[in-house]
Amino acid sequence: MLEYSCEGEQPLSAQPNPTLEELPRKISVAEYLELLRKSDERLEYVDGVVIAMAGESLPHNEVAGNIYSELKVEFRGRSCKVYFEGIKIRVSSTQYRYPDVVALCGTPQIDSQKPPSLLNPQVIFEVLSPSTEEFDKGDKFAEYKQIASLMDYILISQEKMNVVHYARQSPTQWIVTEFTNAEDIIVLAPLGVSLTIAAIYQEIELP
User: Fold this and answer.
1) Which end of the chain has fewer surrounding CB within 10 Å, N or C?
2) Which pLDDT score, from 0 to 100, does residue 16 have?
């Protein structure tokens, strides 16, 4: 994850296509959305700071793809949705993130912004990278807890067979379960589906 907070004097609205290096130290949500409309990158936003998403490793992409594919099959004929990487969620009025995989059952709620944000994710999957693992377990999870609709948060290692499942029991209580065996099964109650660890790591060559 690369964080950009470079100083600049020219207002963002005066720049036809500003680069991240030209951004002021902090920008408004409106300026962030304007930047997104002009950018080919996935840019997250936290309390005024724009964060450029780093490139993925092949295992990272494959793990996320496996989860998406498994849920896509499970959701056939049902009013459930799964989205893969490019969907922005609004965590709060000043925080916007791009989860690796996000899923929900029912009607997706989208805000009126351009580009739009998903408002009601029920399950979020993040594939861990060495540089972001501690952040995903700590500060990012703390952010995600603000989302009232979120019921499950799943962290998947790309370096070993290890999946950690946080299941919400109340607004402040989460049960944590760790899975390390291929035959283990994760039950995602809000989605009415189960995933095997073997399916998540299908065709992944672990170190």
Assistant:
1) C
2) 42
Asked whether residue 166 is domain-assigned, the answer is yes
Q: What angle do CA 20, 26, 28 make, to 5 degrees?
A: 100
**Residue range of the domain that includes 21:** 2-52
C-beta separation of 97 from 91 below 8 A: yes
Per-residue model confidence as pLDDT tens digits over 33-84: 999 999 888 899 999 999 888 777 899 999 999 999 999 999 999 999 999 8
**pLDDT, greater one: 162 or 10:** 162
Residue with tokens 């929900």: 104
122 and 24 part of one domain: no
Burial (CB count <10 Å: 0-12, 13-18, 19+), residue 34 = middle
What pLDDT, on a 0 to 100 scale, did the predictor assign at position 104?
A: 98
Q: Which two tokens stand for residue 206?
A: 């672990």
Domain boundary among 33, 52, 71: 52
- The string of DSSP codes covering 83-122 is EESS--EEEETTEEE--SEEEEESPPPB-SSSS--B---S
Identify whether the C-beta of residue 85 lies closer than 8 Å to the C-beta of residue 64: yes
